[in-house]
Amino acid sequence: MNANFIVGLGEQVLWMVVKLAGPLLLASLVVGLAVSVFQATTQLQEPTLAFVPKIIAVMAALVVLGPWMLVTLTDFARQILGNLTSFIQ
């Protein structure tokens, strides 16, 4: 195990985090922007109005993208654990 291997593994892990968290964060960003525009145009400054739609959007994204996220994470874990013997040597 050398430094290049560890850096490569860290790069794969960070890319996996971006792939799995990105769609949820993007859904929250889009809904938050839409709510902010709505609040600015109507001058309605209710704090719960900012959070509840974001939570609903993230939950909906989890329902839609959850199976894909689970398969992606399972494949990555299977790849890492399958190559565990080559990591030790």
Summarize the biggest pleated sheet. none
Shape: elongated
What's the helix-strand series?
Answer: HHH
Coarse structural class: mainly alpha
Please state the CA-atom Rg, rounded to the nearest Å: 19 Å
Number of domains: 1
Helix content: over 70%
Number of helices: 3
Strand content: under 5%
Distance between the termini: 7 Å
- Count of extended strands: 0
Question: In terms of per-residue confidence, which ranges show pLDDT below 50 for 5 or more consecutive residues?
Answer: none
Mean pLDDT: 89
Question: Would you give an account of this structure?
Answer:
This protein is an all-alpha fold and 89 residues long. It has one domain (23-88). Helix content is 91%, strand content 0%. The chain is built from 3 helices and no strands. It starts with a helix and ends with a helix.
Quick summary:
Helix content is 91%, strand content 0%. By secondary structure, the chain is mostly helical.
Summarize the SSE layout with pairings:
Layout: H1 3-42, H2 47-82, H3 84-88
Helix pairs in contact: 1-2
Question: What keyword list fits this structure?
Answer:
89 residues; mainly alpha; 3 helices; 91% helix; elongated
